[in-house]
Design a protein that fits this description.
By secondary structure, the chain is an alpha/beta fold. It has eleven helices and twelve strands. The protein has an eight-stranded mixed sheet, sandwiched between helices. The relative contact order is 0.14.
Length: about 325
């Protein structure tokens, strides 16, 4: 297995949100992300998948230090983000960008898209006003739009075009690392493939590292080199995309793949479908958090949290006490 130099590395990353006290005097904190180890190499695309509410978006914002972790560290290019001063972090932030899920909500409806794309360049002192205007035209062309579109307002574009504008804005500061937070989930199916292919092309041409957050397993398999599966704030399985999709080891990953629609005929895998709802992050189950929905759970699963341990020599890791028995 080829070793990829690390650009982003999280260790023991945890985020707890303080909940308001209820009328009955009880207050349970929300454990959004719990003890996550995750890395993204240079020019690597890592997918993060899981159900809504599992902590995917919170994890992405922690990696960008848009949220301060409750515990753990995030290193970007070897530097601990929490240890940096505000000026140092601001200079480093140019190299990290975020693409939001809702392309319309992330754009100011009162300003032209050209001005919004230019903001990053001007704020970080990367260009003069004249240089920024020229660069905006180039960026719009890179994402498949016309330079003349720079003078239009966001409402004059379709959803797919607005997401292309959001991609152009993210590229404006010449980043090394982009977190794409479900960037195609708000788009029509016919447009999703175009935006995904655009991200794949830009990643290759510009040498970007990408954290791609999604619940669409087909898209993640197409775009990403590695995948991390999250459940209730924890990473329960991670590994190379091809290996993880072909031979998932964790019951949760198996259930997600079994529930994924496909036009191809497949034989019955015998894997039980996923049932029940995600437990509350303010009151997670003891031991393995998936045990309340797992058909293979026993008393051992309630006793302790399973560690994320090596499953194969290619970097495939799984957190399940019974993985070897049910594989």
């Amino acid at each position: 297995m080829t070793t990829v130099p690390l650009l982003v590395e999280a260790k023991g990353l945890t985020k707890t949100f303080r909940a308001r006290q209820s009328l009955f005097g009880r207050r349970r904190d929300i454990l959004a992300v719990r003890d996550v180890d995750l890395s993204v190499g240079g020019q690597e695309a890592v997918g993060v998948v899981g159900e809504s509410g599992c902590g995917k978006s919170t994890l992405g914002r922690l990696l960008l230090h848009l949220l301060a972790p409750t515990a753990g560290t995030v290193r970007f290019d070897g530097q601990d983000l929490a240890a940096l001063g505000s000026d140092q972090r601001r200079r480093l932030r140019r190299r990290m960008q975020l693409i939001f899920q809702d392309p319309f909500g992330s754009l100011d409806p009162r300003r032209t898209v050209g001005n919004q794309i230019a903001d990053g360049m001007l704020i970080h002192g990367l260009a003069t006003d004249a240089q920024a205007r020229e660069a905006v035209g180039d960026l719009l062309e890179q994402v498949g739009l016309e330079p003349t579109h720079a003078t239009r307002l966001p409402h004059e574009f379709s959803g797919g075009q607005r997401q292309r504008i959001a991609v152009a804005r993210a590229l404006a500061t010449q980043p090394d690392f982009i977190v794409a937070d479900e960037p195609v989930s708000a788009l029509d199916v016919s447009i999703q493939a175009q935006v995904v292919n655009l991200l794949a092309d830009l990643r290759q041409r510009l040498g970007l590292s990408l954290l791609f957050i999604s619940h669409d397993l087909h898209v993640v398999r197409h775009l990403c080199d590695r995948v991390a599966v999250m459940y209730l704030g924890r990473v329960v399985e991670t590994g190379p995309a091809a290996a993880l999709f072909e031979a998932p080891a964790h019951p949760y990953t198996q259930a997600l793949l079994a529930a994924t629609p496909s036009l191809a005929r497949r034989r019955d895998t015998g894997r039980p479908p996923l049932s029940g709802d995600l437990p509350s992050p303010s009151d997670p189950p003891s031991g393995c958090s998936f045990r309340t929905r797992c058909p293979h759970a026993n008393s051992d699963c309630a006793a302790a949290v399973p560690p994320l341990e090596p499953w194969a020599s290619d970097g495939h890791r799984v957190a399940c006490w019974r993985a070897a028995e049910i594989a």
